[in-house]
Amino acid sequence: MLLLEGKSVSKALRAKVKEEIAALSSAVKRVPGLAVILVGEDPASQVYVRNKEKACEEVGITSYSYRLPHDIGQENLIKLIRELNADDRVDGILLQLPLPEGLNTQACLQAIDPRKDVDGLHPENQGRLALGLKALRPCTPAGTLFLLDYYKYDLEGKNCVVLGRSHLVGRPLAMMLNDKTMNATVTMCHSKTRNLKEICRQADFIFLAIGRPRFLTPDMVKEDAVIIDIGINRTEDGLCGDADFKALEGKVAAMTPVPGGIGLMTISQLLENTMQAWKYAMGLIRLEDLA
Ligand SMILES: Nc1nc(=O)c2c([nH]1)NC[C@@H]1CN(c3ccc(C(=O)N[C@@H](CCC(=O)O)C(=O)O)cc3)C=[N+]21
Which residues are involved in binding NADP(+) (predicted)? Predict the structure, then answer.
């Protein structure tokens, strides 16, 4: 089985972003800036946010951190977002999800200037994606496509099963795979899907984004399938994905590990998106030129 290594692929993407920023920032007067907002004290979110800030530093993006108490209140959070929308040092705004209870996620995401929405979660960007227009794309699915491209997979006409329909991952990923640039045949599955096992057994590629530890087992896959594990679960015996990695290893053609897989791609794609937003803000590219 081929191990699809997020570690080396994400390094390649980061190196590309770093190089491009270095080459362009002498011509323009400032480096890219990313505002990272974390509301509340969720320990997993704290780890992710720290990783994101570290990665920014590595490639020459300035990060601005906002750690807010869980009871900040909707109004105050939106006020901060508006200030960041107007702040010329800030090219990207990342609002870490999930938000604590009592905050309206959609209202907060909609307050973000779509040109600074480096998570691709604003309705304008999700809408553009649905129409097949260039947009800032959600980091996890976009990073997943970068990894597939790196390993030279051609998905045209292939059977792709996407497990999970979140706005952050499953839904946008299915749209991207289905798009005219990829031309995959996509089946979206979820908790109410019948005959899931039979559907998965037809798949050339399975994308897992349901957050259920070791859910995908060998009886659910055909031989030589490619497994992209986007799940990240904290269990008693450490981090694990949605695939039963050990059990599948002998049967499938290729698989991403957890950790060391798609999570790392997500962060690298965030850097790429921030650079894109910066290039747009500096007038170097138009919307149609987004990657
Ligand atoms: N607005 C928003 N945007 C996101 O992109 C977003 C979010 N909210 N909320 C939570 C999820 C989760 N996510 C991950 C990012 C990095 C790793 C990552 O770095 N993973 C490493 C190790 C992580 C570890 O050690 O815990 C790995 O898989 O090797 C994982 C998961 C981004 N998310």
Answer: 164-166, 232
